[in-house]
Specification:
- It is a single chain.
- This protein is an alpha+beta fold.
- The chain is 32% helix and 20% strand.
- The strands form 4 sheets. Strands 1, 2, 3, 4, 5, 6, 7, 8 and 9 form a 9-stranded antiparallel β-sheet that branches.
Length: 594
């Protein structure tokens, strides 16, 4: 069953699946009942074995060195067998040639490689070199200091020994392509299977988005899938690198999760982890804004799912954090320490960072006030409200930064229409970033420029898709399009290799993640502003339907709530009005925009 097909799975099937998983992990085999205190961790993920869809390249056409390579495209079973009559892939090396092949699995994924061998002439292990890549270039590259290929956080370039008539499973990274080469001279390898091991949470796509614009539909799908791949044991930033819980990255990801998957335990699990490893007065991930994102995510999570007990568990930490934030305000201006960071493209603009930090403090104090009000703590709610009001009396300079202007617009210290006209909409998607692009879209919506935002999504995120992306990237600059080659093919001599040429800061060249959860903003944005779903009451008990179709003729989709799915369809009429149909759980109150 495909990911998209799971979107129509009945809710009771999901509950049954989770219950089955829970029972399966409930106990160890009886042999472990031996008086020892075993430390055990469950894994809420599943594994699927996927055969390559294409032999993308082989190092030689000499059938004496490589033959039967298409056998690897057959149905995988993951089992060695006592015959070599099935036409297994044969690779032979000589003193001068060590052949290799490149496998294409069709989509960027998270996991490893399963290699199943046959009865090789010699029973000695055969060494192979495996290179994984999110692009063709990366899979064909070596670890070096020129093009940025690394083994940081996950091994993508390594040598292993394969057994005679056996199986080896290895690797744990993000990749679409896998290159396999013989390492030693005068060796023979019989390979029955070479499968990708897809490791992921087997969860249904409950939310959906479809319109008459297939480009927007595909962008929504790619954003959803990008976050899905990063929903591992914890909610990661990227499946290749860093594979860590970065709280700022989580905010767009959690917004996408709520639009696509509904409640998932990976979110509170990740929020709790970062809280527990960050004693006050430290900042989460060493970055002041990331602690603020933690507060904002909790406010949003409670609004969608209404778990007051879980929110109450955060109160003591939240008190310490909000007072720590208040201690870093002098007069009505932020004086934050720690790493002063919004996103990487704005990191060399200190004035913009100052304006962004001022805005983030306001946003976080506003969210804190809402949380304290829910928790019946009027004293702390008052402190948070007064801090936000004080900070709003100061108007920093956005310094021409779309990031800063967006945050200032969203927190009420810059007129949204002015921010959009003078800064955010200037030169289209120039200076957009995959992380803060989400907040640029949100600011455009606040300014009423829904059509402009839709066009930005088509141009900016669509450009990655046009270059062969099946997941969205850690960063992207629209200028990279000039004379660019696609990432899913070899780069012609007269074209620019996007993956090996661009990027900076922590994502230089091939170190650049091509599956990064913070880039998923259009998925959440399209659900919220085009499909028009706005959660107004905790637990999604009241939902405002306020669609903005722009130049679209129709849009339809689903939205997950704790009580079940909403089904929504909007059709533009001949007079420009929009006809709306909504159905869903009886105990969800639907209100409509005027």
């Amino acid at each position: 069953m495909s990911f998209m097909q799971r979107a129509v799975m009945p809710v009771f099937s999901v509950i049954l699946f989770l219950a089955t998983c829970s029972n399966a992990f409930a106990q160890l085999p009886p042999a472990f009942n031996n008086g020892r205190d075993y430390k055990v961790a469950d894994d809420s993920r599943t594994r699927k074995y996927i055969a390559p869809v294409k032999i993308f390249w082989k190092s030689t056409e000499n059938t004496g060195l490589i033959k039967n390579e298409n056998h690897l495209l057959n149905q995988p079973i993951g089992q060695a067998i006592l015959t070599n009559k099935q036409g297994f892939l044969v690779m032979k090396s000589t003193e001068t040639e060590k052949p290799g092949i490149l496998l294409d699995f069709g989509v960027n994924l998270h996991g490893g490689i399963q290699l199943v061998t046959g009865m090789i002439g010699s029973k000695d292990p055969v060494r192979v070199r495996i290179r994984l890549g999110e692009s063709v270039t990366e899979a064909m590259s070596s670890i070096d200091t020129i093009h940025g290929a690394t083994n940081d956080h996950a091994m993508r370039d390594f040598i292993v020994s394969l057994p005679w008539l056996g199986k080896l499973e290895i690797g744990n990274s993000g990749f679409r392509y896998a290159r396999i080469d013989l390492v030693d001279p005068n060796k023979e390898l019989l390979l029955k299977e070479a499968n990708a091991i897809l490791v992921y949470r087997d969860i249904p796509y409950l939310g959906s988005f479809k319109s008459n614009d297939e480009r927007l539909n595909k962008i929504w799908d790619i954003g959803a899938y990008t976050v899905h791949m990063n929903m591992q044991e914890y909610l990661w930033d990227g499946i290749k690198r860093d594979r860590l819980v970065w709280v700022g990255d989580l905010h767009p990801e959690v917004s996408t999760i709520s639009a696509v998957f509904g409640y998932n335990e990976v979110v509170p699990k990740s929020l709790d982890l970062i809280r527990d490893i960050t004693p006050m007065p430290e900042w989460m991930n060493g970055i002041s804004t990331y602690s603020m994102w933690w507060i904002i995510i909790h406010r949003d999570w409670y609004l969608h799912y209404g778990d007051k007990t879980y929110l109450k568990e955060q109160e003591n930490y939240l008190k310490l954090l909000t007072r720590h934030m208040a201690s870093r305000v002098e007069g009505n201006k932020e004086k934050l320490d720690g790493t002063r960071f919004l996103d990487w493209p704005s990191s060399e603009n200190p004035e913009a960072i100052h304006a962004g930090l001022q805005s983030m403090l306001i946003w976080a104090f506003d969210a804190s006030e809402e949380i304290y009000t829910v928790l019946d703590n009027p004293e702390m709610a008052k402190e948070a409200r007064e801090m936000a009001a004080k900070l709003r009396t100061y108007r920093p300079d956005h310094a021409g930064s779309k990031q800063a202007a967006s945050l200032m617009s969203l927190t009420g210290i810059m007129d949204p229409t002015k921010a959009n006209r003078q800064v955010i909409a200037k030169d289209g998607v120039a200076d957009f970033s995959t992380f803060y692009g989400y907040y640029m879209l949100e600011a455009k919506a606040k300014a009423g420029d829904y059509q402009g935002a839709i066009e930005n999504i088509r141009e900016y995120w669509g450009a990655m898709m046009d270059l062969g992306a099946t997941t969205f990237w850690e960063d992207f600059n629209i200028d990279w399009l000039e004379n660019a080659a696609r990432i899913d093919d070899f780069v012609p001599d007269d074209k620019v290799d996007v993956h090996a040429s661009y990027g900076g800061y922590s994502y230089d060249k091939l170190r650049h993640n091509l599956s990064h959860g913070w880039a998923s903003g259009p998925t959440a944005w399209l659900t919220k502003h085009v499909l028009g779903v706005h959660v107004l009451e905790s637990g999604s008990k009241t939902i405002l339907i306020d669609p903005h179709l722009g130049d679209l003729d129709w849009v339809e989709g689903t939205f997950p709530t704790p009580d079940g799915l909403l089904y929504i369809r909007h059709e533009k009429q001949g007079d420009g009005s929009v006809k709306t149909k909504v159905s869903g759980p009886e105990n969800v109150n639907i209100v409509y925009s005027k």
